[in-house]
Amino acid sequence: MIKKHLVTCSVILVSVVILKLFVCSTTERKSAMKSTRFVGYLAARTEVNEGYNFADESMPVANKSVNRKIKVSLWRHSYNRVGSVVLHRKASEIFPIIEPILKVYGIPEDFKYIPLVESGLKSGTSPKGAAGWWQFMPQTARDYGLKVNSSKDERLNLRKSTIAACKYLRDLYGELNNNWTLAAAAYNGGSPRVRHAINRQNRGNYYLMHLNRETASYVYKLIAMKEVIKKPTEYGYHNVYVSYPQPAELLAVN
């Protein structure tokens, strides 16, 4: 009887130990999966595209820091993070209007992604006072021919604000050694800040500069936006073109 009781206790003890080992193993596995989810994404993206560029200036992806930054930016712009096709819908609405204007002013087509980065996932006026598709500050908007007052705000007019943005970008390009990547960075951080960051070590290469966090990530955001719009399925966006408006509907966009 005692022997039978001991056997029963042993079986119960072994079962408890096995159960604890299983629970610990499952918890550790979930934790590992969670911590390696982003790393796994980066590894998966490594083979997709090594030819990233902005305005025909290639990104030096051989640089480890640059390589990681673009992968982080791509991940942040993927469907898993955005969770909507709003960026693609907006692109279909505004690109047919923006592209011809950029061409007339001699601005590289890649600059059409600025409005998506600036206001693609948000709208209204920023805490600093910037507004519209191109997120112009009031005085900068006025400097480039837009009316901004209590009764009218042309920053909200897509065509007029795009023309103003083209004029501004041309000035930035001229100020920054005729370099479009630096002009894009200056659109975010201002030309004085970008000029100050140019030195012998980086020789005017944006990707090697030490800039404030927002400006340092800005061109990466533009390139990531370009990638997800041009190759939606590679970044988790599916059936994004189903909701695209018909050409006639584009006429209603200001």
From TrEMBL:
InterPro entries: Lysozyme-like_dom_sf, Transglycosylase_SLT_dom_1. This is Transglycosylase SLT domain-containing protein. Signal peptide: none annotated. Pfam families: SLT (PF01464). Residues 108-206 form the Transglycosylase SLT domain. Belongs to the transglycosylase Slt family. It comes from the Bacteria.
